[in-house]
Design brief:
The model has no long low-confidence stretch (mean pLDDT 78). The protein has one domain. The protein contains four helices and no strands. Helix 1 packs antiparallel against helix 2 and helix 2 packs antiparallel against helix 3. By secondary structure, the protein is an all-alpha fold.
Length: 100
């Protein structure tokens, strides 16, 4: 069942526009883990940016689905934290581990 005021959260004026935005973000989010696992800094930053777009868009759903929106926002924040704090080049990460 869809909320009655769904137009307030849709990008543009049609669900088709909203769907295409999410298809593009989803495609980036599917490719990013493979790039991150291969050590790519571009994949790390693309993951941060696309996840930020994803969890910022969850704020618009807050009036309709508050629990799911908060859950998605928290998970998005944790993913961004993990990519930002624990990413980086492999030698620097290994050097930090050795110095501890």
């Amino acid at each position: 069942m869809l909320p009655g005021n769904l137009e307030a959260v849709i990008f543009g004026h049609s669900p088709q526009t909203y769907g295409w935005v999410y298809v593009v973000v989803a495609a980036v989010l599917i490719v990013c883990p493979f790039l991150v696992l291969s050590g790519s800094q571009m994949g790390r930053w693309a993951g941060i940016m696309s996840d930020a777009i994803g969890f910022i868009s969850a704020i618009w759903w807050m009036p309709f689905y508050p629990i799911w929106s908060l859950t998605y926002i928290v998970i998005g924040f944790l993913v961004i934290y993990a990519l930002a704090a624990h990413g980086g080049n492999a030698e620097a990460v290994l050097q930090r581990l050795v110095l501890r």
